[in-house]
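subagent[fold] <- orchestrator: predict structure for attached chain, return tokens only, no commentary.
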Amino acid sequence: MRTAVTGVILAGAPIGSVDATPIIGQTPPVQVSPSSPAVDTPRRGRRLPNGHLLTAAVLLGLLGLMAVAPGLFTDSDPRDCDLSRSLVPPSWGAHPFGYDLLGCDYAAQTIYGTRTSMVLAVVVVLGAGAVALVLGTVAGYSGGALDAVISRITDVWSGIPLILGGIVLLSGSLDRGLEQVVVVLVAFSWPPMVRVMRVSTQQVKELDYVTSARALGAGPLRLLRRHVVPNALRPLVVFASAYAGVLISAEAILTFAGVGLQRPTQSWGILLYQAQDRLVQAPHLLIFPGVFLVAAVLGFVLLGEGLQRHSSHRD
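subagent[fold] -> orchestrator:
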């Protein structure tokens, strides 16, 4: 009876005069304004700044500028030495890093050593990355016996530690310049990159757009050049960016062990090697190149993490 009366009232009443009060026992309809803050969704395309990438850009940007133009950061000549200033401690003035055993400005030596360490890391990454690009792509795309052969060679070669292999090869060389150290580091740095490139290639070649291109008649070379390699390179770039920090540390360890770079080359490893006999007498000889070394390694590690986060956001 109540329902019928209600229906008559609603049928005969103007639309504007209908009482919207809900009937007791029924759940009222929820009407939410599009601008209501309760359902305000985050704006798409809006991302937080990539802190890892920004920090890496600042650190590596400063170190890269030091490597290219060291004269912007110091007016001193690293070869201008005076024995009367031997092991003078740092001072808040023109020589904030003090002097080394031969009386050379330590700030100038540390800054000029940036070029060698940064160039070495970049060249080794490019060389090992080129080897990994070829071997990893061939193994991942071809499969079968060729993949098995490349994978077994990679496994055997990766069983030799980077530092141990460098010590064995460099200890028998009398002339250890930048070229010799680069070749040795490239020789023992490519196996992990080959693994990354191989797995990435295997994943990319099974994607739908690659399968579609193959069904349309695209040959292996065209598939690799246009579809597989450009998309499989991303994980390799991320890994190589972080691995550059490992290479800088490896050069410093080899030089500190006495089998790495030699004078007259300027590098952080050489400065650390010369400081090992004066740690108590002149601790600044170890602190300042060590800080630069840590900053470079941290910059490359953050670069790899930042690129990985950026890549995951894109996906």
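orchestrator: received. Logging for downstream: Residues 111-314 form a domain with the MetI-like fold fold (CATH 1.10.3720.10). Residues 18 and 220 are 72 Å apart (CA to CA).
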